[in-house]
Write a structure and sequence with these properties.
By secondary structure, this protein is mainly β. The chain has no helices and eleven strands.
């Protein structure tokens, strides 16, 4: 059983930066694949970035490639998302998600993930 809590959201001007964090309760955090998704008003969850259980292999949506960086600290049971060069279209509620084991081919699908945080709001103004 995994409980996830996001933090770090807020209001920022276009071109600015934010760093989101997600803290997991599980002592076996290192055995979970982790990801960030986001949901804009009236839209479905959109994949943002993922990081694997073994090897910390990362994957990014084309829309954030080169601007966002996902990382994990297994010692602290923490997932992070560094967001730079933010754009108004990045405005959304951001969720962290966890899936047990290896997910090298379906890491960008919501159905892959068993556990979700409550979300944190990111608002980027023009």
């Amino acid at each position: 059983q995994v409980q996830l809590v996001e933090s770090g959201g807020g209001l920022v001007q276009a071109g600015g930066s934010l760093r989101l964090s997600c803290t997991a309760s599980a002592r076996t955090f290192s055995t979970y694949s982790m990801a960030w998704f986001r949901q804009a008003p009236g839209k479905e969850h959109e994949f943002v970035a993922a990081i694997s259980w073994i090897g910390s292999v990362t994957g990014y949506a084309d829309s954030v490639q080169g601007r966002f960086t996902i990382s994990r600290d297994n010692t602290k049971n923490t997932l992070s998302l560094q967001m730079n060069s933010l754009k108004p279209e990045d405005t959304a509620v951001y969720y962290c998600a966890a899936a047990y084991g290896l997910h090298y081919t379906d890491y960008d699908r919501t159905a892959t993930y068993d556990y979700w945080g409550q979300g944190t709001q990111v608002t980027v103004s023009s």
